[in-house]
């Protein structure tokens, strides 16, 4: 490790050490490291090699998370194994990476205390924004908590972004990037109804989750539009997981419920539902149709491939990062309509729906 | 928001404000917030409600990531949408959460510069450890880079942990939590061979990735043990994704390769392989058997459910966090054999293997 000698045995390498060893000017090193100026690939490679060799810590990184340096955005997510959320995070990261920004992901495990601790931590560290992902629980306490986060981040020159959640009530300094959740559910239910299905098992998610509320409401509107009554007994609430899909179908079959289609709240719930149908000797889609929501990669990996609602998760992540970057550039602080973005959803027709058999 | 008045309009709430409003002693608040002492649920709830109401930022959080406060561990991951890695991260988080620690996840996008920037950032922030997840590329430069990371973290009273990677060469202050990668591949290939398969398409992964090297080597050893030649033309390298599985099978079929089984390097590759077989009119497992590796949830959601190798990803994450916590408690700095942990793997038999048809 003779290379480390250049930096002295105790001290850190300086930008001058890097410039000298790379045979370029200090200004050139600075341009490469800032990431804000166009530099040739060759210069970038040469400088970064020396940076690695000397284990050089830039002042930007030393200051980083503290305002002046590399902007960093924090993404807070309930559960890191949720595929939809990780695609939003990937979108944030790809847009951040383009700008030379860093991203950090913290997980809250659906625990308000961990969420609070992480938001406070990130505020202290001076992140450019805190991006909260995923459906929210529709309690008054939630609105209050988010408003407090928004104001405390705003006061610290940071910013709160909610992705995949409805906007906050009142004048709160936060940006919302949402998708047409109810419209997607309306289109998906209409697809089943227009194929002739009348008895549909609906698994919208947890009753208190805003995402599930929107998906159920969209389905209800479609049933109304088709003049088909939606039996409340055919709606089963539960978590967005494989086990819930499996158990809800198994139990409905055991209770003798007659249905020709399953409208699942997510692709993962649909996967569980399809497996339970097959375990009961029913074929998908010949005997029972199954549809999902989200269009995560799983949807096209299942057999049959799942008809579902495409939600532009990665694009939502990119839009969230762009909103933060635009805001910083323009120095804009005003809260207005432009701070609420709603992206479109659409049905992706694959192989899991057929008209009901007689 | 009248509650905020307690903290004054400009200043932050103090621990005394919290204690007063909660009607408990300052010491009690401190015990709740430290997370290191047993406290009653009722006390915890009461204090945390006030903490939220006052938007109180603990000194621990204010100091946090800077040594004295809530220990934080950083997880660095190539790609946040990789299911295996997210399960390791989940294991780290659950073990961290038990101890009241926080975790942050950074993604490197397989870019050594971003990896460097994140390691430096985390070192500056005083994290208790940096945990690097996932297969490494087998280059000399990698060994040097990791040794530098390990030494610079060690010098900053932090620690490098490699999970799912082979240990570093020489005396390097790092902990490795690995799994019996080659043994799992040996067992999986043996399972196919003992079912009678002799012509097997092998998709181990990228040739330079340590994970893929181990999986291929395990398979080769099994073929040798069974006295079956493994045709090098039947080994196709490529990324661990669905598209590679699909394309490799499609191309092999087009070139007229005769095989009765696919030994895929991951479950996701297996999912792509199975889809390509079906697209060519072949049934799984009646015409061609398919096996995976990893045992992520996808494996049991596919039809047929995938026979695969179970890797204890969550347990590896928990073990990594425990190693860091034990190290901090004991003040241990010595590098020894105990710093290399290898967890076991085993074949999970499901429905995707049958003896070859004639």
UniProtKB/TrEMBL annotation, chains A, B:
<dbReference type="InterPro" id="IPR000843">
    <property type="entry name" value="HTH_LacI"/>
</dbReference>
<feature type="domain" description="HTH lacI-type">
    <location>
        <begin position="13"/>
        <end position="67"/>
    </location>
</feature>
<dbReference type="InterPro" id="IPR028082">
    <property type="entry name" value="Peripla_BP_I"/>
</dbReference>
<dbReference type="Pfam" id="PF00356">
    <property type="entry name" value="LacI"/>
</dbReference>
<keyword id="KW-0804">Transcription</keyword>
<keyword id="KW-0238">DNA-binding</keyword>
<protein>
    <submittedName>
        <fullName>LacI family transcriptional regulator</fullName>
    </submittedName>
</protein>
<dbReference type="InterPro" id="IPR046335">
    <property type="entry name" value="LacI/GalR-like_sensor"/>
</dbReference>
<keyword id="KW-0805">Transcription regulation</keyword>
<dbReference type="InterPro" id="IPR010982">
    <property type="entry name" value="Lambda_DNA-bd_dom_sf"/>
</dbReference>
<dbReference type="GO" id="GO:0000976">
    <property type="term" value="F:transcription cis-regulatory region binding"/>
</dbReference>
<dbReference type="GO" id="GO:0003700">
    <property type="term" value="F:DNA-binding transcription factor activity"/>
</dbReference>
<dbReference type="Pfam" id="PF13377">
    <property type="entry name" value="Peripla_BP_3"/>
</dbReference>
């Amino acid at each position: 490790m003779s290379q480390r000698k250049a930096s002295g045995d105790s001290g850190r390498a300086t930008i001058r050490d890097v410039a000298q060893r790379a045979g370029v000017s200090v200004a050139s090193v600075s341009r490469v490291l800032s990431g804000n100026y166009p530099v040739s690939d060759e210069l970038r490679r040469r400088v970064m090699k020396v940076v690695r060799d000397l284990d050089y810590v830039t002042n930007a990184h030393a200051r980083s998370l503290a305002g002046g340096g590399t902007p960093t955005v924090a993404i807070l997510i309930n559960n890191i194994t949720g595929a939809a959320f990780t695609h939003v995070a990937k979108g944030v990261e790809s847009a951040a990476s383009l700008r030379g920004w860093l991203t950090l992901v913290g997980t809250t495990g659906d625990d308000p205390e961990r969420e609070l601790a992480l938001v406070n931590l990130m505020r202290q560290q001076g992140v450019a924004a805190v991006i909260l992902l995923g459906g929210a629980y529709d309690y008054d306490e939630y609105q209050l908590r988010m408003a407090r986060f928004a104001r405390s981040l705003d006061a610290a020159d940071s910013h709160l972004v909610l992705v995949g959640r409805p906007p906050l009530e009142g004048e709160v300094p936060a940006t919302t990037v949402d998708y047409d959740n109810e419209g997607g559910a309306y289109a998906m239910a209409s697809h089943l109804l227009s194929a002739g299905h009348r008895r549909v098992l609906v698994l919208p998610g947890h009753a208190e989750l805003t995402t599930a509320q929107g998906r159920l409401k969209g389905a209800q509107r479609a049933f109304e539009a088709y003049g088909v009554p939606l039996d409340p007994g055919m709606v089963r609430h539960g978590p967005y997981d494989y086990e819930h899909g499996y158990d809800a179908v198994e139990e409905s079959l055991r209770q003798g419920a007659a249905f020709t289609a399953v409208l699942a709240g997510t692709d993962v719930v649909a996967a569980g539902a399809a497996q339970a149908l097959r375990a009961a000797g029913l074929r998908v889609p010949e005997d029972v149709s199954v549809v999902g929501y989200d269009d995560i990669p799983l949807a096209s990996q299942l057999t049959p491939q799942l008809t579902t609602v495409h939600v532009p998760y990665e694009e939502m992540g990119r839009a969230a990062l762009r909103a933060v970057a635009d805001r910083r550039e323009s120095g804009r602080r005003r809260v207005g309509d432009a701070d609420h973005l709603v992206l479109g959803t659409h049905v992706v027709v694959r192989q899991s729906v057929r008209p009901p058999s007689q």
